[in-house]
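Usage

Read records sequentially. Each one opens with the input sequence:
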Amino acid sequence: MRYWTVLALVAMPAAASAQVAPTAVEPLIPAQGTVLDISAEGRTTRVPDLATIRAGVVSQAATAAAALADNAQRMARVTAALKRAGIAERDIATASVGLSPQYRYTDGQPPAITGYQATNTVSVRFRDVARAGTVLDTLVAQGANQIDGPNLSIDTPDAALDEARTDAVKRARARADLYAAAAGMKVVRLISIAEAGQDAGGPGQPPIFLARAMKADAPTAIAPGEKDVTVTLSVRFLLQ
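and closes with the structure output:
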């Protein structure tokens, strides 16, 4: 018993010293120089080439079946008009279908159902923005009585995003040179780049409700304008 106790007492300090042995860690930040972090936004512009609208039909009737039947007939005409206008099937998608009772409210009495309202809405993408206004007028003529939009965006923004990234790096380097010169230093090298966010020129505002009569005095015009495509970078530089 004494022999094993002595061995245990002798081994304990060695184990304790092994647990606290220092470990070398490579520093994440260079030891020599000053680190400068820059946030820069790069920007370019594109003319939107994709317009998205929501076209709907609202029908009212005394019964639910009559409201749905009328709504289905109207929406069939709207869909057929879209296809005749050259809109591909992949660019037409059902957005919502609804049926709800309509009530009459009288003081002191429970609400009474006076009829039913059926709604059907489709989301439509126009790849020729210039023709969007003409198609909207055609939809109204074929029975569409609710139109939201258009939302203008860029169909393939990858090239524009790359331009914005290049611009962001240039802006970050110019700003780093400015800070370095003000501090009496110079930029030695770039340490890291991280993309913090991007805007590919998608819809920036909620849809605008457009209501047109069956017979319009002038055709609807859609002005695409320009969209900003932006990328934000976080860039770290080493100064000396």
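Summary fields computed downstream for this record:
- The CA atoms of residues 42 and 168 lie 4 Å apart.
- The domain at 31-46+155-202+228-240 is CATH 3.30.110.170 (Translation Initiation Factor IF3).
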